[in-house]
Design a protein that fits this description.
Layout: E1 15-20, H1 23-33, E2 37-40, H2 49-61, E3 71-73, E4 76-78, H3 91-111, E5 114-119, E6 123-127, E7 132-134, E8 145-149, H4 152-169, E9 174-179, H5 189-209, E10 213-214, H6 217-224, H7 240-254, H8 260-274, H9 283-302
Parallel strand pairs: 1-2, 1-5, 5-9, 9-10
Antiparallel strand pairs: 3-4, 6-7, 6-8
């Protein structure tokens, strides 16, 4: 698949916000490993466009969460607009956490140079009592929800709103869309294809109508890695080999080639930190540790935001 390097690539001065499906975590973890400046899914994984639009709107308009926005189940407080990772046994603590993340999201969007949005599915669940489409069902009984497939028009409208809000707040940010290669087979094989087709059709209109970019992660997975050896045991998620391959393609398009030498230095440090010596007290290991500290100091003197465990 022919890919062209971007004329507005990511470097170590760039600040990124990544929002969306679990594929965000794959690319986000790579960016984190190489110590780029990024914020990744502050409200956890968001699978569909309306959930992402809702979060961005709340953050920009500073619509804070209140008691009516959360619910208690089995002694744990949760929020239908956030992933189940954001939960607490104390309602006030959860509200504090949600509102703190909302502030961080707004600052991230305001100051970002690149915003990466990954769409996972067009299937949504509407909570019958509130008539609101949720980001996450939190394993609440399915009887309380109505499952719906968003139309192409509904997705297009949502993405138009999303791009418009971001542009109004941060006109310089480069918006990069991608469609997750993760197959949502729990919806059904045919239903998963219908869902992806709706996302593609809507996104095509958005790319045509706005100055936004598209990275073909779905197409790379389906066309270049069309083999089950590139999937995890669940046969749904890309495995490490596939993620590495797609990352290399992403790097080719979106990471400035001027950074490649720094990426290699960070990689050497990361591998050094994972090294487990046979004899920790040996002279050879002491030399190794000194060399590693020197490499870390070199990077941190040039990139003060880099933190190594």
């Amino acid at each position: 698949m022919p890919l062209t390097p971007s004329d507005n690539p990511i470097d170590y001065q760039s600040k990124m916000v990544l929002l969306g499906s679990c594929f965000v975590e794959n690319m986000g973890n790579k960016l984190d490993y190489f110590k780029f400046q990024q914020m990744q899914n502050p409200f956890g994984i968001l699978f569909h466009p309306l959930a992402i639009e809702n979060l961005v709107q709340r953050a920009i308009q500073e619509e804070t969460y209140e008691k009516g926005d959360i619910f208690e189940q089995d002694g744990i407080w949760r929020c239908f607009e956030a992933h189940s990772n954001l939960r607490s046994e104390d309602s006030l603590e959860l509200l504090q956490l949600l509102n703190q993340r909302l502030k961080e999201t707004k600052i991230g969007l305001e100051t970002s140079s690149h915003i990466i949005i990954t769409l996972g599915t067009a299937w949504v669940y509407e909570h019958q009592d509130s008539n609101k489409i949720v980001a996450n069902c939190h394993k609440v009984s399915q009887k309380q929800f109505t499952k719906k497939l968003l139309s192409v028009t509904e997705i297009e409208s949502s993405l138009n709103n999303l791009v418009g809000m971001i542009r109004k707040m941060n006109s310089l940010a480069q918006i990069i869309f991608t469609i997750s290669p993760v197959r949502h087979v729990k919806d059904g094989f045919v239903e998963n294809q219908q869902s992806k087709a709706h996302l593609f059709a809507a996104l095509y209109q958005i790319i045509k109508g706005h100055s936004v970019s598209y990275f073909p992660s779905y197409e790379i997975m389906m066309d270049e890695l069309r083999d089950y050896r590139f999937y995890d045991k669940d046969m749904v998620h890309p495995n490490e080999l596939a993620v590495d391959y797609i990352w290399e393609k992403f790097k080719l398009v979106w990471i400035s080639s001027k950074c490649y030498a720094v990426l290699d230095k960070v990689d050497a440090v990361q591998k050094g930190l994972l090294h487990r010596p046979f004899n920790p007290d040996s002279e050879a290991h002491q030399k190794f540790k000194t060399s590693l500290r020197t490499k870390i100091t070199y990077l941190q003197e040039r990139y003060s935001f880099m933190k190594f465990d």
